[in-house]
Amino acid sequence: MEMSRSKIGRVTLLAGALLLGGCQSDALDDVAAFGDSAKTLNDDSAVAFYKDDELVTTGKLQFQEKNYGKSYAIYKRAVEVFPRDPAAWLGFAASSDMVGRFDTSDRAYAQLSKMIGGTAVYYNNIGYSHLLRGDLPGARTYFLKAYEIDPSNETTARNLELLKNSVKYAQR
Known about the structure:
The chain is globular and about 45 Å long. The longest helix has 17 residues, at about 5-20. It is an all-alpha fold. It has a single domain, classed as Alpha Horseshoe (Serine Threonine Protein Phosphatase 5, Tetratricopeptide repeat). It is built from 8 helices and no strands. Helix content is about 65%, strand content about 0%. α2 (about 55-65) runs antiparallel to α3 and α5 (about 100-115) packs antiparallel against α6 (about 120-135).
């Protein structure tokens, strides 16, 4: 039984497609839809039980990947599940700031003031919140409080430099 050239071509094309379909490229392993990296795509919204640091770790990863909306949602869940965890509240406050939900971040900072108020971490974060709002004098006040507590803190130094640069250049 002989096959026509067009049938042979189709069979060859089909075999090639099947072989290529099983290949993976290392260059694409870390890419996912919408620009997220593949490691940020786990959906844990329906989970009722969380390991100790799972939400905070996932929220931190989303924040580092600049997926602020996702980190906001994850940290919001984290403060509901672990209301006495300052790391959850810090992440929630920072995520709220990055999505422009300053009303929510103000509530988070009020909660944090009871937990870690008076620390350089607290003052740096609330100062950065004021910087994002355009309140440069308020930001300066908090950054200087952080500096008084820990003059060697690198985050404080970067924040003060950022503030200095914010004053130099006009907002657009």
